[in-house]
Amino acid sequence: MSDLGEAVDPDSLGGPEFLAYSVLSVHREEGHGELSRTGYHKLTTIADLKLRSDHGLDIGLQSHWYFYGLTVVEDAFREQIAFTPNANYHSGQAYYPADRVSETDFAHLDPELRRTVRSVVQQIVERHGDKDWRELERYQYRAYAPSEFVERYAMLRGVLYERRKRGARQASLGRFDHSTPDAVVQGLDRMLEAFPEDRYELLADEYLLWDDTFRLLADNGAPAEELEAFHERMVEAVSRVYLRFEVRNNVPTEQLHEWAVEARREIEQFRAQVETVRSRALSTHEPEVGLSTVAESYNATIHEEIENLD
Fold this sequence. Notes:
mainly alpha, elongated, three-stranded antiparallel sheet, 62% helix, 310 residues, 10 helices
């Protein structure tokens, strides 16, 4: 495996780069095989959290909570740290330590910092290095989810994933299950109970409409893939509008301003997409009493909130 390119200026490499490089190199040294992009992000952020909690050490890693939990702000890294070949043994990219950088390129960093980072990374890789990305995601949600609502939507995500996989197996046998398992409805109920309406005011009406639309899709016997995708769209909206602001480390002000602009657009886009899905679902479902009143109230409220952002 070769990694051609210009040599890295060691002075441009700091604590965050050393942490990422250590995760990649220790993972390879331990013989765990390929490391996916998600695995790279998960192991790096888990190690960073341990450095903070056990050693009170903030090395400057830029990270935030997003779609699948804590993620590294990868654009903040020197691109020479990770090597990502176009082809590998699994879907997606495989991450390796770049050949153009080595341990000696970090010699200018404090020796104690390097020892501490390396030790923590060794512990994290030994404990989690053989887990696939889905196992790492589940661990991160169990150990570090920022709220009960996030924990509960992660649980429903797992239920929907298993339902889709089970449906695929049944379909291969010529069987089709259009029922709505109690676990899905219970998951929605638990999410609704935990939804922080006061904190997530700008998305409160959208979320209520999304919840009702999800139940409508389930009642209509929507395919598992459609339910899973609709759930993921909600998670994406909550992540863009709230979670990446609530759980973040070392994210620069300029990035936060960009996110704020994106969040404002996201509210509009999410609302429009939920309304589109709902209209399609209602065309094959008997309308509920008072539905138009709910929709009118929802539209009026969210428009008022958006105007207040100006």
